[in-house]
Amino acid sequence: MAPQDPARGRLLFEYAAAAGHTQANILVTNLLANGVAGRRDWPLAMERLAVEGRKLPDRQRALELVLGMNLNAVGDPKSVPKPQDLSEQPYARMFEQIFTESECDYLMSVAEDRFEPSMVYNRSGELVRDTIRTSDGAAFHWLIEDPAVHAINRRVAVASGTAYDQGEPLQALRYSPGQEYRPHFDFVDGATNQRLWTALMYLNDEYEGGQTAFVRTSLKVRGKPGDMLLFRNALNDGALDEFGEHAGMPVTAGTKYLSTRWIRERRWIP
């Protein structure tokens, strides 16, 4: 397997964009917005997004969403709501209505065509359905993290007191009736760049069941659309926080949509 070279890959996309390749132009705009594997230029990304929006409805929708956000000149939110303390063990906070209905709808709609069953490799090396997590997932990896998704990620960073570049790509999750995420830790054993925090964003309310349950305590959470639950995975000394064990309880009716972002202890993006 060839070693990854994100900076070289970005340069090749820039060459293709300069040659007039439409999709490459879109990807370059996304990379200028998020600064992955190269320079970040939010104003230029917004200029390019406006041009793309004149021809492409999806880009126009992203532009309109960003223009409706209360952002500063570099795309950070000017303010975020104060959190409500839920628990000290686990250390959990709720940011109520940190996202708008339009932003929740946007994340659900752009994820819909990307959902795939959660899969793992078994002992025979075969790719099989995950028995711990039976939901469907969609990753907004850095190439397709458009400026609207990026601005949402920056809001998560500000609310959590971390930097954007500490976060893994945003994940969207879809739970149909009977689907669940059985008890687990987001902490990664042996990681040299640990997952310190988990941010869970609740996107809809048309379902029953599906609470986020912290199984070593009595804490169960069901956020409203636009709410974000932030909880700790590691203690101050870097050890596992055992109270962070949690589960997505089975959905009994309707469809539950979430987004999640795992936040590392230091820079994670290329």
Averaged pLDDT: 95
> In the CATH hierarchy, what is the architecture of the largest domain at level 2?
Sandwich
What count of helical segments does DSSP give? Answer: 6
- Which quaternary structure do these chains form? single chain
CATH topology-level fold name of the largest domain: Jelly Rolls
The ordered string of helix (H) and strand (E) elements is HHHHEEHEEEEHEEEEEEEEEE
Class computed from helices, strands and strand pairing:
alpha+beta
Number of beta strands: 16
Low-confidence stretches: none
Helix-residue proportion? 25-40%
Number of domains: 2
Give the CATH class of the largest domain: Mainly Beta
What integer value in Å does the Rg equal? 19 Å
Termini separation (Å)?
A: 18 Å
Q: Given the C-alpha coordinates, what overall shape results?
A: globular
Biggest sheet overview: 8 strands, antiparallel
Can you identify the CATH superfamily of the largest domain? q2cbj1_9rhob like domain
Sheet with most strands: strand arrangement: 1-2-13-9-16-7-6-3
Detailed description of the structure:
28% of the residues lie in helices and 26% in strands. It is α+β, with helices and mostly antiparallel strands and 270 residues long. The chain folds into 2 domains: 6-67, no CATH class; 84-264, q2cbj1_9rhob like domain (Jelly Rolls, Sandwich), CATH 2.60.120.620. Strands 1-2-13-9-16-7-6-3 form an 8-stranded antiparallel sheet, with helices on one face. It has a 4-stranded antiparallel sheet with strand order 8-14-11-12, with no helix packed on it. Helix 1 crosses helix 2 (22-34) and helix 3 (42-53) crosses helix 4 (57-67). The protein is globular, with a radius of gyration of 19 Å. It starts with 5 loop residues before the first helix and ends in a 6-residue tail after the last strand. The model has no long low-confidence stretch (mean pLDDT 95).
